[in-house]
Amino acid sequence: MEKAKVYFTKDISSDGLIKVYEALNRELKGRVAVKISTGEPGGHHFLNPNLIKGLVTKLNGTIVECCTAYRGKRFDVESHYQAIKDHGFMDIAPCDIMDEEGDMPIPVVGGKHLQGVNYVGTHIKNYDSMLMLSHFKGHAMGGFGGALKNMSIGVASRNGKAWIHSVGITKDADEMWHHTNDQDGFLESMAEADKAVVDYFGSENMAYINVANNLSIDCDCDSNPHAPEMADIGIFASLDPVAIDQCCYDQIMNSMDQGKDSLVNRMLEKHAIHTVEEAQKLGLGTREYEIINID
């Protein structure tokens, strides 16, 4: 397979974000969903609304999210909308909790854990294309969160999140915590959910951006995340979700930053790269890439 192109800029600004998106030379057509993490209240590392406003406006996009499977302040629709408002996202664009009116199944082709189905919010039907606008950072369960996690757990409904976390055993958000021992199965289930979303929209209707800043070992779903120990890196963009996450992973692993150790250990401990490996096996992209600097 030909190497995927991953575009990169060190300019973590609104202009830098637009520039790296434009380098992709892909028009996201129709009604555009911009999938971000709106951040658990108490946390503060989620993407800044002022950073993303220009690009979301350029796309005439709608910021989309789904409710969480853990009982935090984004577990129910009303509280989640309040968090979205408090974090400033309603000030920059329309916002939509996609599982506000329930969920629906979309097929998983070629998987081994999710019994052939992924569960996403019914509002996904309102969109023709999707930008995965992800904050790349660590994660307590997945090892790291980037495009693949944002597209799997992030796009999944609350029930779908439980389904993925429990490796296709339960859709009950409380029951799922009894079924989280199969780490590789969980990572593989995320890749299966990714395939379902790509198949739903069509790869030609998707694009991926990872913002590698505020590089905490903890996710934006953490209400009290660990402070970042390494410096910001920049913004990556690709049409290949496998390549962009592999590239960001490599940037951390190969960094000369002496503060990287905690994040490296988190990713290794959770076998984080396995999601990328499985996504490649499922045909979502390639781990072989070239970085194109656009500074």
Bin the helical content: 25-40%
What share of the residues does DSSP label as strand, in percent?
Answer: 15-25%
What is the arithmetic mean of pLDDT? 95
**Number of helices in the DSSP assignment:** 9
User: Mind telling me the C-alpha Rg?
Assistant: 17 Å
Low-confidence segments, ≥5 residues, pLDDT <50? none
Architecture per CATH nomenclature, i.e. the level-2 architecture: 3-Layer(aba) Sandwich
Shape: globular
Question: What is the third-level CATH name, the topology?
Answer: Rossmann fold
Structural class: alpha/beta
Measure the end-to-end span.
27 Å
Strand order of the largest sheet: 4-3-2-7-10-11-1-12
Number of DSSP E strands: 12
Question: What does this entry look like structurally?
Answer:
It contains nine helices and twelve strands. It has 295 residues and is α/β, with parallel strands linked by helices. The protein has one domain: Rossmann fold (3-Layer(aba) Sandwich), CATH 3.40.50. The strands form three sheets. It has an eight-stranded mixed beta sheet with strand order 4-3-2-7-10-11-1-12, sandwiched between helices. Strands 5-6 form a two-stranded antiparallel sheet. The radius of gyration is 17 Å and the shape is globular. The two termini are 27 Å apart. The model has no long low-confidence stretch (mean pLDDT 95).
Question: How is the topology of this model organized?
Answer:
Layout: E1 4-9, H1 14-23, E2 32-35, H2 49-58, E3 62-65, H3 77-86, E4 95-97, E5 103-107, E6 117-121, E7 129-135, E8 137-139, E9 143-145, H4 147-152, H5 158-165, H6 183-201, E10 206-212, E11 234-238, H7 241-253, H8 261-269, H9 273-281, E12 289-293
Parallel strand pairs: 1-12, 2-3, 2-7, 3-4, 7-10
Antiparallel strand pairs: 1-11, 5-6, 8-9, 10-11
